[in-house]
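look at this record:
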Amino acid sequence: MYNKVMVIDTSSSAASIAVFENGILIGESGLHSKTTHSIKFMPLLDALMKQLELKISDIDAYYVCEGPGSFTGVRIGISTVKGFAQPFHTPIYTFTSMYLLASAMRHVEGLIVPMIDAKRSEVYYGVYKWSDGSLVCLEEGVASVAEIMQQVKDKYAAERYTWIGDGVLNYREMLSFESNDAVGTAYDAAQSAGKLALEGHSGTPQSAFTVKANYMRKSQAERDVK
């Protein structure tokens, strides 16, 4: 186990930072903003580090959301971690946005389906379940809101589905939930991911030279090019 760990998620309008020491959460901070995190995120992180009396060189490992989500937001998180990790050769671990949302849904029976608004009536989605204390990813992808619910229920048999994320909230009128479905949100992404990482769900470490974003599809500007 690493001594001090920092977890960062800037993939959506809800940016979050969590710092752990010897497996215990010692500080966290977050913000909700409709504008880019490029201006507010670094002062937020700097203030947290000052409160904890820590320097970047004190961090032994980073865990960062690789996306998908806001293209600008994902780049900010990845670039920040790369810049911090490179001088000290600090290991980097990544999680997808959907994994982060699902990680907050502990003790949930059945399937967990996070949905993140991908605009133009599409969502990034994932299908997860807890098995022997581990969060298992069955699939991740991007699909239209019109087809996603039926697609998931046709493919996976479950007594209960838990639907979470801003895609659920933003497109609720287009979705059709059954009586035993649970609908909610999850905001403590960084803290939840950090807990999972510290419990051994860390994946393969990367370096500042190998870590990269996971956008799942081209940017709006790229799609608009004829």
Observations:
- The radius of gyration is 17 Å.
- The first strand starts at residue 4 and ends at 9.
- The CA atoms of residues 149 and 176 lie 8 Å apart.
